[in-house]
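Q: I have 383 residues here and want to know how they pack in 3D. Can you give me a structure?
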Amino acid sequence: MYKSSGKLYRYGPEASGGSEILAETDGSGTVTTEYVYFGGKRIAMLPAAGSPQYYVEDFLGSSRVVTQSNGVVCYDADFTPFGGDISYTNSCPAQNNYKFEGKERDTETGNDDFGARYYTWRFGRWLSADWSSVPVAVPYANLTNPQTLNLYAMVADDPESFADLDGHEAEGGPEAGTAGGGTLDARTTQSNGTKTPPPEGEPQLPPTTPTQNTTANQQPAQNLSAHDIAQIIKSAQASSSDAVTTAISMFNNLGQNVTASGDALRAGMKEANFAMPDALAPMVSNATSLSKSGNAVTIESAKEAKYQIGDNTIRVDKTLRFNVEVGKGTAAITGISGLSARKGFLWPGINEVRYTSTGRNTGNLEIKSWITKRLSCTSDGCQ
């Protein structure tokens, strides 16, 4: 990326997400600043002509304090709910431009670069409407909360409760447990990790949306029995090399216009002697019904539920929605709404789960939320 000031950016490799700025250079390619990350968070700045500076962030990722290598505080600031900074100390040798939620504040415009789009804290609004790489009528909206229908609003006008981490409305979103009903990525991240540009003009309604799928609406949905589901799972097992691919292929192979009860789903899994992998198990453990139209899956539960998976607390809302993608050697559920993982007092949405097979019972699992978590999987599980 190139700015009019002559600044160039070097991003991380695609294999590791490719969205973090690792270094900045001048127009001739000379490195002026490098950045150090730990656990997906920026922790230090390394100016080419100076000493390291270290970031101290709040729960939203906003840079509240910057210290020099000797521990002296050279930047100390508070932020208004919509991102205006109130600096008490600002004397760092190298200027800190990464402020509200850790995003770069453009020195020319004062706007914040969230990746998917720019945000202006002066008005508490995005400079462009929210968008999705998968055509939908209202991207990332939670139709039970009218506030999320405003595609220019910052986290449904409630920034004291929720956060937006990449420019898609919004983390831990109102009432949906995710980004206004969809969050980070059905989304903007393709299977190769690169960002896609927003569609031009008005987005077309997807043929897989239940209300728009003419073929599906002309015929009543097929109600699957436990035995039907067991046969689908066995077919998925025969063509898959691991449990994660089997699970996602099961959703993919259910059919174009089907329903099933939660009891039938669990009974079918038991009949096929199939256990859902830990990363996906909470999605069906408490389900009362499942429906699928095109590649869009909806799972209803009697109540919201929380599960502990390793060190992570996972929340499944009463309504869980996602799209299914299965390709050669890959399987993914994308555009997830209603699944989130706890981070402090926030519940950032889990937006995408993507698995790439590397052999029999081995592969790499990516779970995209406020950060991208990458796990290596074997027959003993993923870690």
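Q: Anything worth noting?
A: Confidence is low (pLDDT under 50) at residues 14-18, 174-217. The longest helix spans residues 226-239.
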